[in-house]
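To: structure subgroup
Subject: Chain for Friday's discussion

All,

I'm putting the inputs and outputs inline so they're searchable in the archive.
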Amino acid sequence: MKQSFWFSASLLVLIWTIYYYAKRTTGGVTNTLDNVVCGIVGLVCIFIIFFNIARYIKNKQNKN
């Protein structure tokens, strides 16, 4: 599977966001801003990942 830049970047950012949020939660220092920013970033990354997977499947089906 040839990965696009946005797919790879989204995976890295999603992993970093999960790590950051878990670190803040474990330390007991999360606030509303952390919840909003991490939630939005996580949703955008998941959307980009699903979009790229769907595009890959669609392209693979069109080749067959």
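Points worth raising on Friday:
The CA atoms of residues 15 and 42 lie 9 Å apart.
The mean pLDDT is 93.

D.
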